[in-house]
């Protein structure tokens, strides 16, 4: 039976992690404390946080949150830190990719498990603002196409009307 203090810690941790959209599991071996503090500051700026915890307590917490036991079991091996994204998971993946001596073991993004390669792929996705601008640009192209098709149809109708009027005058 776990100690009451540990059960209380798991309950508090579970409450903190419940609102997370993405969880990136890392191995921070070899990372200087100064670099870890810089990482935490950078994460706070982007509505994210980083915690270091014992594997058993982390595993129990993630299991209580309803994540797949097999997926999370392999993430809690060796020193483990969890980077939690409360807003945009892609920005967090980019930050972690650029951190020295921080190895990403895998992660859970919006309920889906990703291995190290999957997280690397996520970090290559353009920022949200750039995706929005691409979407708006696509909508503009579709709007221009619709305008062009409308003008072709309008010109065809005018031409047919002119031919009809000419035929009426000739009769």
Overview of this protein structure:
The chain is of the alpha+beta class. It folds into 2 domains: 4-123, Alpha-Beta Plaits; 127-171. It has 7 helices and 5 strands, in the order H-E-H-E-H-H-E-H-E-E-H-H. A 5-stranded antiparallel sheet has the order 2-3-1-4-5. Strand 4 and strand 5 (112-115) form a beta hairpin. The termini are far apart. The mean pLDDT is 84.
List the helices and strands and how they pair.
Layout: H1 4-17, E1 22-27, H2 33-45, E2 48-52, H3 55-64, H4 69-73, E3 81-85, H5 89-97, E4 103-109, E5 112-115, H6 116-123, H7 128-170
Antiparallel strand pairs: 1-3, 1-4, 2-3, 4-5
Helix pairs in contact: 1-3, 5-6
Q: What is the top-level CATH class of the largest domain?
A: Alpha Beta
Uncertain ranges: none
Let me know the largest β-sheet. Answer: 5 strands, antiparallel
Give the helix/strand class. alpha+beta
In round numbers, the mean pLDDT is 84
CATH architecture of the largest domain: 2-Layer Sandwich
- What is the count of β-strands? 5
Going across the major beta sheet, what is the strand order? 2-3-1-4-5
Give the helix level as a range of percent: 55-70%
CATH topology of the largest domain: Alpha-Beta Plaits
Shape: elongated
Question: Descriptors for this entry?
Answer:
16% strand; 7 helices; 171 residues; alpha+beta; Alpha-Beta Plaits; 5-stranded antiparallel beta sheet
Entry summary:
By secondary structure, the protein is α+β, with helices and mostly antiparallel strands. The chain has helices at 4-17, 33-45, 55-64, 69-73, 89-97, 116-123, 128-170; strands at 22-27, 48-52, 81-85, 103-109, 112-115. The model has no long low-confidence stretch (mean pLDDT 84).
